[in-house]
């Protein structure tokens, strides 16, 4: 069992930076791929980035590539999303979610989300 708790959201000005954290409980955290997804008001949830269990592989949506960076510290059981050059369209609830393998079609665990609001 893995529980995920996001934090770090808030109000930020366009062009600014923010760091989101996804803290996990559970002994098997380090075996999961962790994704960040987001859902803007009135829109469907969309993928943002993922990081492999080891941290050796990452992947980003085109909309955030070059601006966001995902990282993890398995010793601290935490995954981070560093958001830079934030745009108003980055306003959304951000979720972290866990997959046991890249081939899984669904996520095994979800966090409750953290709100990011960008002012222009």
Low-confidence parts lasting 5 or more residues at pLDDT below 50? none
Q: Can you tell me the overall shape?
A: globular
What's the helix count?
0
Helix share, percent = under 10%
Keyphrases for this structure?
120 residues; mainly beta; seven-stranded mixed β-sheet; 11 strands
Description:
- The protein is mainly beta and 120 residues long.
- The protein has strands at 3-7, 10-13, 18-25, 33-39, 46-51, 58-60, 68-73, 78-83, 92-99, 109-110, 114-119.
- Helices cover 0% and strands 51% of the residues.
- The strands form 2 sheets. Strands 2, 4, 5, 6, 9, 10 and 11 form a 7-stranded mixed beta sheet that branches. Strands 1-3-8-7 form a 4-stranded antiparallel beta sheet, with no helix packed on it.
- It is globular, with a radius of gyration of 13 Å.
- The mean pLDDT is 95.
Short description:
The protein is an all-beta fold and 120 residues long.
Topology:
Layout: E1 3-7, E2 10-13, E3 18-25, E4 33-39, E5 46-51, E6 58-60, E7 68-73, E8 78-83, E9 92-99, E10 109-110, E11 114-119
Parallel strand pairs: 2-11
Antiparallel strand pairs: 1-3, 3-8, 4-5, 4-9, 5-6, 7-8, 9-10, 9-11
């Amino acid at each position: 069992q893995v529980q995920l708790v996001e934090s770090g959201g808030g109000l930020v000005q366009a062009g600014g930076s923010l760091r989101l954290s996804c803290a996990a409980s559970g002994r098997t955290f380090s075996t999961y791929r962790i994704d960040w997804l987001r859902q803007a008001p009135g829109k469907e949830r969309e993928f943002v980035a993922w990081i492999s269990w080891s941290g050796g592989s990452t992947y980003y949506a085109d909309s955030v590539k070059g601006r966001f960076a995902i990282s993890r510290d398995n010793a601290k059981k935490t995954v981070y999303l560093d958001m830079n050059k934030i745009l108003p369209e980055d306003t959304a609830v951000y979720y972290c979610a866990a997959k046991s393998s890249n081939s899984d079609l669904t996520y095994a665990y979800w966090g409750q989300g953290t709100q990011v609001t960008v002012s222009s």
